[in-house]
Write a structure and sequence with these properties.
5-stranded mixed β-sheet; 8-stranded mixed β-sheet; elongated; 426 residues
């Protein structure tokens, strides 16, 4: 017996019963991007490995453990993208979109990390990424937070998420703070776990983000970056908080909220929930004014965020948001007889042309009227159009109401489009 092929662990199929929900959420995200003036950019899912090593850092878990990397026939090291920001910046530099310009860009698609698969964390996962280039002030930081807040309101999870914010300051104050952290954690080295010991010299700020509950007390005693901010960063952060308060956005200042990469600065934020177990962050963002220059472009202020689509879908399971997905056909066209079969195809195309929003399914595979009516009922259609050879000769179609107790009616084929439009409010 031949072995059956199965999907790679952590890389999931999305069946028709699931894709309608994804399409509804994706459609809302696209509308939201237009509402705020962001334009879509699409990047390849494969990039040179050096792009991610330079942007993410060689001493991060992503680069050391999680990237899907291989050498191709030209001896180039290539990687499936583990995140989108580096690719977006690379594209902006390559096509001259960033220098002395302001750009608001977004993208959506699969990312890849070889992590241990669990709920909310997969090896192929999907993200919405939003990036704004050329804006220095906190106003764009606030706008992106407001954009995400509007999404939570639209999908009905506003009460299930909490905004955490912090400031990372500039590179100079962060370098001084890094030394303070190393000194503190070295004094308490016996309390560090294996991951934290590995990060101590290379990436000490990531220790603050440890999920190890046994280290929580130690981390709370560590020096706080927001107590060592430069003056400009303090002003930026105060303006950010003032604007959020003016907009009615509740937030928690979380001094342990950090990013372990040098190009991040000033604002960082995360939307968190307690409804998904350990995978509590559904959206994370902040400023990364140093990345464009780090990847070979001119210095460009930038701010962005990414959100995990799978985690949002998981939060929405059982909610009203997916109650009416508009995926079922409006009409199921039943036909019996040679002339009726020929006419059914022509009539269906005519109706689709006249009513572009009409969802119409034509019966295929034959079957008597009884079998076709069963198919029509299972399809979820509201109406059944019935054609036999007699109806073709008379130029009519019979309409049966599948979800209402109404008498079947006879409609002239020439008037069928207007009848359907009126009944279905198309």
């Amino acid at each position: 017996m031949k072995a059956k092929f199965q999907a790679i662990k952590g890389m999931n199929d999305f069946l028709p019963e699931h894709t309608a929900a994804w399409q509804k959420l994706e459609g809302l995200l696209r509308s939201l991007m237009k509402q705020y003036g962001y334009h879509e950019i699409r990047m390849p899912i494969v990039e040179k490995t050096s792009l991610f090593k330079r942007s993410i850092g060689e001493v991060t878990d992503i680069v050391e453990k999680e990237m899907y990397t291989w050498t191709d026939l030209n001896e180039d090291s290539l990687t499936l993208r583990p995140e989108g920001t580096a690719s977006c910046v690379r594209a902006g530099i390559e096509h001259g979109l960033l220098y002395n310009q302001q750009q608001k860009l977004w993208y959506m698609g699969p990312m890849f990390r070889r992590e241990k698969p669990q709920k909310g964390r997969y090896r192929q996962f999907h993200q919405l990424g939003v990036e704004a280039f050329g804006y220095e002030g906190p106003d764009v930081d606030v706008e992106q937070i407001l954009l995400t807040h509007r999404l939570w309101q639209a999908i009905g999870i506003e009460d299930n998420v909490v905004l955490h914010i912090n400031s990372l300051g500039d590179s100079d104050c962060r370098a001084k703070y890094r030394e303070l952290l190393i000194e503190f954690f070295k004094e308490n080295e016996d309390q560090l776990d294996e991951d934290s010991l590995r990060r101590l010299e290379s990436n000490p700020m990531r220790i603050l983000d440890s999920k190890n509950s046994a280290m929580r007390s130690l981390i709370e005693q560590a020096p706080k970056l927001n107590e060592h901010l430069d003056e400009a960063s303090q002003v930026h952060f105060e303006l950010l908080k003032q604007r959020l308060e003016a907009a009615g956005i509740r937030f928690i200042v979380n001094p342990c909220l950090v990013r372990g990469l040098d190009y991040y600065n000033r604002t960082v934020f995360e939307w968190m929930t307690d409804k998904l177990g350990a995978q509590g962050t559904i959206c994370a963002g902040g400023r990364y004014d140093g990345l464009t220059e780090q990847l070979g472009g001119q210095a460009t202020p930038a701010c962005g965020f990414a959100m995990g689509i799978e985690r949002i879908v998981a939060l929405l399971e059982g909610s009203d948001f997916f109650a009416d997905l508009d995926d079922e056909p409006h009409i199921y066209l039943i036909h019996l007889g040679e002339k009726a079969e020929l006419k059914a195809t022509v009539l269906a195309e005519k109706l689709r042309t006249q009513l572009p929003n009409l969802r119409l399914m034509v019966n295929h595979g034959g079957g008597n009227f009884k079998k076709q009516f069963k198919k029509a009922d299972r399809s979820g259609a509201l109406l059944a159009l019935i054609l036999g050879d007699d109806e073709v000769d008379k130029g009519i179609a019979n309409v049966k109401f599948l979800r209402e107790k109404r008498e079947q009616v006879e409609v002239q084929q020439s008037e069928l489009g207007d009848f359907v439009a009126n009944e279905l409010k198309l």
